[in-house]
Write a structure and sequence with these properties.
heterodimer; A: mainly alpha; Serine Threonine Protein Phosphatase 5, Tetratricopeptide repeat; 46 helices; B: alpha+beta; Aminopeptidase; 2 domains; 8-stranded mixed sheet; 6 helices; 25% helix; 28% strand; globular; acyltransferase (chain B); GNAT_dom (chain B)
Chain lengths: 930, 183
Amino acid sequence: MSVALDRQIRPIYDALDTGSHKSAITECNKVLKKHPRNALVKALKALALVRYQKVEEALVLCDEVLESKPTDDSTLNAMMHVLRGLGRHKDMVTMYDAAYKKQPTNEELGAQTFFANVRANNWKSAQQVASKMYKQFQEDRYLYWSVMSSVLQANDPNTPAEMRSLLYKLALRLITSAPTPSSVHSDRFYLHLTILRELLEYDEAMTVLETPAGRNICETNLTCNEMRRDIMKLRRAIEVEGKRAEQRILEKSDRNWLEFLSVIDGTFAPFTDSEDAKEQRISRISSTSALFTEVSVQDGRKDRSGLLGLLELESRARNHDVSTDPKRLLHLLQQYFEIFGDKACCFEDLKPYLSLEGEDLAAWTETLTTSFTALTTIEAVRRVVNAHKLLRYNLSTSELSLDAESSRANLYMSQYLEGLPLGKSLPATELQHVDDLAILAGNVLVNMWEMSKDDKYLHRAVFFLEYALAKSKQAFQMRLMLIRIYRILGAPSSALEHYRLLRVKQVQNDTLSHFLLSRCSTFSLASSGDLTYISECLESSQIYVSNSQETNDYIIRAFSAEKYSQIPQFIIFEEWLENSLQRDITKLEYLRMRLTHEPISSDIVDLELIELKFIFDRSHHDNRDFQILPNYQPKHAQDFNDQTLLFGKSERHGWVRSFLKSYIKVFSQASDLSDVVEEKLLVGDRPQVSPKSGSLKQRLAQRNEEELAELTSNESSLIAFVDSLAGWLEPFHDYVRPPASVVLADVAKNTELKTGLPLRGVDLTPQNGDTKKEEEMPPITDAPEIVAAYFDDMKTQFKNSLTTASLSEVLHVVTLTQEAFLLFVTETMRFKPASVVKIHKLGNLVAKFKTIRVSAITVLKDMAASLEKLSAQEGTSERKQELVDACEFESSEIDHDIIVATARKITDSRKKVAEGIAKGLLKICTTYAQ
Amino acid sequence: MSVLRPFKASDMFKFNNVNLDIWTETYNIGFYLHYLSRWPDLCCVQEAPSGRMMGYVIGKAEGQAAEWHGHVTAITVAPEYRRLSLARKMMSLLELVSDETYRGYFVDLYVRCNNLIAIEMYEGMGYSVYRRVREYYGNLGVGKGGRDEEDAFDMRKPLSRDSARRSVRSNGRDIIVSAHDVS
């Protein structure tokens, strides 16, 4: 490159680096005037265009550069970014492959070719490139790259089972051919062990593990040591492993719980000779017991391992029916509570062992109840909290009457107030010592609501938790509880306020957003112009973009740094996030809200349809965190999470699939994009899908009980309405939809207008003769009963919900009815133009639509009127007072101002949501009146 | 007592009970993946027998020549698992790996000057203040701590390779440097 040209190109890089894409394009155009064939500048312009969202123009340039088969670093590098931006990993592979072939001694190019294959998940080619590099450059790392690639190819779900062991054998052959042993490097060693484990070569694995180098690695490297444990288990060397663990506990004072578990596993290892098995077993148990007792005496209050080990040992002895002392479990529990009762995790530690019955249970209960002391120290508070949690967990169904629960709630609340002064001087960033008592009270009150369905208990829970949260601002568990309760009460803005205070960010958007976004279209005011939830959905989905852009880079970095143990983990992480269930729940909620906000058009339908079809082929992974909600409900009762799910049901795979099927059905009928058209127009890699049975149409038609069981009854009605509607109109859509060639010609014309260049890859030779359809116009039929009756049915549902259900249920009925109407509008959009009706003689059909539309609009307007009335009631001061009065707190210590403010918050929020949804309904009725 | 095991990429899906705590930052995915792709053996998790995450440590190895050392980037324990010596155990693992695998001269960490409990704990573990770094931490909006809240102590503990204890000094608290001198 000449110096002059180099000087002209620098400003382009500068503009790209600073994100001034537009000026980068201008700079490129300047240079291209003089050097119209310069591949680097073209590549840079393509990059600027991609970043400037001018994808169509970028594609043209991109293809031109690819055709020129570039080999210089700068052009390749620019193109790598272009192709990544366009999701064209396969083209990147082809580009680097060609370049590397031309310069086989260029090591950097070889590595880039390898990485391009890694990005495209082309493990087989990656393996070949790496072997080639190993031969050429004789570096061990390239040999290991090829080994890792073989392993990854074997693990790929699309690799046939019989190939798997072949690939692992290949990997093993490669690894043993290396000039230096794998144990010079812990991650190479790990990879070696993975392969041996997979091939069931446990003895060989033991041999390498027992070398001094192998032992050393396991001593300091947790990942390799984890693998070692696993191999020991697989080769059934449980006893040996137990002995080893025992030594570590004694000699190195290792208190890793895994070592204790190994000792216990060893104690219960199966015997070869079963003659006096029971005696032998008992004697082993007693020696393990002696070991753990020694540890527990030695450690005292410093470490819980010894005592907890004894509990686990006794619990397993009971399971194996070799326990010798029926009182032992009770005594150990008592001892544990005595020593560690003031550790916050005591309840969690003991939970697996709370299986006492009869006398023992009574004695245990007695121990706990007599442990109550005045709450004058922090230790006393923790002990009381643990005692409450332990007692509550064991409550029988008969002990769970409303009265009994009510007195428990009062006890927890009064003890909360009693202990609160202990934390008076804590800084605002600290948690209060008594927080768990408030959380316990919240649990009880929600349980009382569950039993009685009386909202006053939820109100009480809200008041008390708000009070406690004001005292302990960082108590995120209380916030999460409040979010759930506010949503049930139909006070979404209060829930949103707390959610925002949690400061959920990055990957937490995937695991925690369900608290806010689950069925959030129920509360969305997008129909009346408020885009709060729509933007929450978009924001929380940002993490998936980061994942698809960044995670891949770290897989490559892990290759560079030879951290082979991490590569499969990164791939799993990327895949779980990419195929996250919450991602597509959010997507569906977004779409449902979008249709209430934007005028429904063929553009929306086409774009969303393509995306929904991609989603439909995903195998979802559920990353949602429900464990984060504290649960102190008795073991026989539903847990707090299940109790507080909105409408009592959590969306899972079945919910997502049910809604996806409905929307894809409706959108593909409404759209002109047939598969043929889509195939021609889509650029870039398609998501990898495992072969599915049946065509898309067949798969859409299947509804199974399991999937439908995840829907609420109102959602089921919506799905039934959609199925019936789509079944009725399908023949008419197929008859009227223009043929693929016409659609493509249309697209080509538009593209040419926009970019000034013809659309590539689409053959537009006009077809001979008339393209008029040969099939007969299908006979016009009446609307199916389900469709015809739907809106009146929903009217009845609505009336019922008004008298019996909470506001959220009412809104659920309303928003689903609105959704059904919008889907009806989408389904009938094609038949709107008068010319279509005239040409195809559809007058009779369209008349039937009108009847349905009129009845739908009447019902929706009715609902809007009732909601307005409801909203007005919520706004009155009587309503607020009613809430305050219902809370019946005995103690005057609870700040009255907080109660009044909270009551106002609830009623304001309810008023706002009812009002907004009513307004939106009316707007939709007007927009689609015709 | 707890399970000590490696930090895995998928732990990002389950660290909420640790990270919702105000003192623990949730970084972008690249942050965790960066550490795991370079120093996976310096990142570990403490887990309760129930499978719940109790805390974790994320570290790295850095520095030239006699400054080559292990560094604690983040160490955190969920509120309900505090006062169980978990931090101490994670630190000793990090020290072991820095010493034996990386052959570093010392391990260092940064701590807010007003975090007396932590400073005392680290001193108990053999760390001493090497220098004070001005305005190392952003303000959390809490605000009342003044200088001690924004400034950090850089604390160090020599490893076996530094038998002459050249990496530490007794007057560290009086040596003040600014934040851009250390990163």
